[in-house]
Design brief:
This protein has helices at about 5-15, 25-35, 40-60, 70-85. With about 90 residues, it is mostly helical.
Length: about 90
């Protein structure tokens, strides 16, 4: 259960990442993070929303799901925030 929300969020990211034809990849990734935030715990949601805003302002690095990409870093940070909130 501990990894259910991050795993679900990654699936949302994968599904949403290909649906943007008129928007930039960074905007699509930020939107996907916002969607994942809507399905997350409050602490994880705050991290995802902040990262989504940063991606909109500064752009994204790498494709979603790739190690080191902006979205992967956001998901890792959200998972850590969620994990810390359950202790």
């Amino acid at each position: 259960m501990r990894y259910a929300a991050p795993a679900l969020a990654l699936l949302v990211l994968a599904a949403c990442s290909g649906s943007s034809t008129n928007r930039s990849s960074a905007d699509a990734q930020a939107d996907a993070l916002d969607n994942a935030a809507d399905q997350s715990t409050p602490k994880a949601a705050a991290v995802l929303e902040n990262r989504a805003d940063a991606i909109r302002e500064n752009g994204a690095t790498g494709a979603p799901g790739q190690p080191g990409s902006s979205t992967q870093q956001a998901m890792n940070a959200a998972a850590a925030a969620q994990s810390n909130s359950s202790r």
